[in-house]
Structures are given as C-alpha cells and as structure tokens.
Predict the 3D structure of the following.
Amino acid sequence: MHSLEKKARRLNPVIELKKSRFDAELAQLNVVRQRKIEVVAAMRATQKQYMDGVGRLNDERGTMNRLMLEALETGLDNVKGLWMKLYQDVLDLEKIEKQQAEIMSRAHRELEAIQSLQDKYKLAWTQELDKREQKMMDEHAQRKFYR
C-alpha cells in the first residue's frame, strides 16, 4: 500500500469522529431551537391572556360594581410577571442558540477540512497511479516496437 493511500485511509476514523461531533452539535442546536419555539408559544399564550385580562379589567372599571377590580389587577400583575420571565427565557435561549450555532459551524469547518485533506491525498494517489500506469504502457509499447 502506498503512503498516500495509507494517509487517506488513516483519515477515515478522524472523519467519522468529526461527523459524529458535528451531528451531536447539530442535534443540540435543534434541541435549543425547539425549546425556544415552545417558550415563544407560551409567551404568545401569556400575552393573549394578558390582553384578555386587560379587556376584562377595563370592563370592570366601567361598571359601578368594582368587586373584582383588585383580583383582576393582581392576576394581571402575575400574568405580566410570567410574560417577562418567558421573555427573558427567550433572550437566554437566543444567546445559547447563537453560541451553539458557532460551535456547530466550527465542527462543520473541521469536518470539511479533514475531508478536503483526504480528497487531496486520494487525488494525489490517483494521479500517481495514472503516471505509473502510463509509464508501464509506454515501456510495454517500447518493448513491442523494438522487437
């Protein structure tokens, strides 16, 4: 086995390792993105709940009977606090998503670099085989010609 071919074959385990790392980082990024989608959906639901509560509070303020006014205000404060917590969670998840995307991108670049190196070795090996084959054919033709 030729040294270029050996070099190309030795990179196979490294490529598999880099592929598995890239796949793991991509899976982690997808988990973060899915969690973000869930939190945004919860945030939208909370926002709708808040808007409905504001409507009810305004209706209550428009009546003479204001028995539920304090309870509605307290409930709205709780919903608003929940919305703010969810908003902060989305910001945190976006930060984590950005970091994870960078990690995944780096893993992808490493994988491509190793694959490119392997392709370079394979191309060099193929070119060398072609040269050897051409040389053998030339020698064979010369022997036939000089007979």
